[in-house]
Specification:
The complex is a heterodimer of chains A (about 190) and B (about 120). The longest helix of chain A has 29 residues, at about 155-185. Chain A has about 190 residues and is mainly α. Chain A has helices spanning about 5-15, 20-45, 45-65, 70-90, 100-105, 115-125, 130-140, 145-155, 155-185. Chain A contains 9 helices and no strands. Chain A folds into 2 domains: about 1-100, Orthogonal Bundle (Rna Polymerase Sigma Factor, Chain: A), CATH 1.10.1740.10; about 105-185, Arc Repressor Mutant, subunit A (Orthogonal Bundle). Chain A is about 80% helix and about 0% strand. Chain A starts with a helix and ends with a helix. The radius of gyration of chain A is 18 Å and the shape is elongated. With about 120 residues, chain B is an all-alpha fold. Chain B has 4 helices and no strands. The longest helix of chain B is centred in the C-terminal third of the chain and has 71 residues, at about 45-115. The model of chain B has no long low-confidence stretch (mean pLDDT about 85). Chains A and B meet through helix 2, helix 3, helix 6, helix 7 and helix 9 of A and helix 1 and helix 2 of B.
Chain lengths: ~190, ~120
């Protein structure tokens, strides 16, 4: 996020804190992509992701007074979304499998990207533990560094690093095996 | 290989927008939700809070000083009462000794007088 965007969001935040609903709506528009994507990739279904996104923004409305800046707002939203998603996943015995028609939504393939590899990555991501999944999403979707991930998830930095390393090793190994199978079948 | 898998994951995890329908609903819900009261409305300004704490501190130290002073006064008066009692007891003890001595003297004098008188 560049400085002018930050300044604009800071201004929206100040106006939202003074009770201006339009400014709060602008903040929601600016952050809904990030919050919704995190919720969807953590929880696996669109309905649950929408519920969580809505709850997070309602919670934001009640906590606007404690948000100090636009950067703090981004951090706060990621922290609340991932922690609430982890709590929900802990309550559920298993992560619900996503339906086939939702599969396309979880990973909108980039132009030229391998759709099979994307689907395989989706399966590998949902196999990870909730904490490891949150670490991976904050690192590669939200582009946070390990120190910020540790703060957001209230986790020691070494745990974050070991989650990242272990998840990447597993994914690399399984993607390699998957590519081998594809080569053999063609 | 590590960078390859990282870039693959990064591209697969690009943030995606929710449906327009949900987005509209969310904005409507947020707009309809009553805003949380700004903090300044239900809290005293910092300077007033500071003055309040100073006043409360002064009042508490005044109460404490008066309480301690009264306690000391009570102890002083108890101490002087005990001192007076001790002096009275000492005076009584001395008086009692003097009386005993006088009694002994009178008693020995009267017995010697009785011995000196010839029997009739």
């Amino acid at each position: 996020m560049n400085d002018s965007a930050c300044e604009l969001l800071d201004e929206y935040l100040a106006r939202a804190r003074s009770g201006e609903r339009a400014a709060l709506a602008s903040l929601v528009r600016a952050h809904q992509r990030s919050v919704y994507s995190l919720a969807l990739r953590m929880l696996g279904t669109r309905d649950l992701a929408e519920d969580l996104t809505q709850d997070v923004f309602m919670q934001l409305n009640d906590n606007l007074g404690s948000i100090e800046s636009s950067r703090h707002l981004g951090f706060w939203l990621r922290q609340v979304t991932t922690n609430r998603a982890i709590d929900q996943l802990r309550r559920r015995a298993r992560v619900q499998l996503t339906s086939l028609d939702e599969e396309q939504e979880l990973f909108c393939a980039e132009e030229g990207a391998d759709p099979l590899l994307q689907r395989h990555l989706r399966a590998l991501l949902s196999d990870l533990s909730p904490q490891a999944r949150a670490v991976l999403l904050l690192r590669y979707q939200e582009d946070l560094d390990p120190i910020d991930i540790a703060r957001a998830l209230d986790m020691p930095i070494n745990t974050v690093k070991s989650h990242l390393k272990r998840s990447l090793d597993t994914m690399r190994e399984k993607v390699g095996a998957h590519a081998g199978c594809e080569d053999q079948s063609t | 290989m590590n960078q390859d898998i990282e870039s693959e994951i990064r591209s697969a995890l690009r943030p995606m927008a929710p449906s327009d329908e949900f987005s509209q609903q969310l904005l409507a819900r947020v707009a309809a939700h009553p805003p949380a009261r700004p903090r300044s409305n239900n809290r005293m300004p910092l300077r007033a809070r500071h003055a309040w704490w100073v006043a409360a501190g002064l009042a508490a130290s005044l109460v404490l000083t008066v309480g301690v002073e009264r306690q000391l006064e009570r102890q002083r008066s108890l101490q002087s009462g005990l001192e007076a009692r001790r002096e009275v007891l000492q005076a009584l003890r001395v008086t009692s000794q003097k009386l005993n001595l006088a009694y002994e003297a009178v008693k020995s004098q009267s017995s010697s007088l009785a011995d000196a008188e010839p029997a009739v």
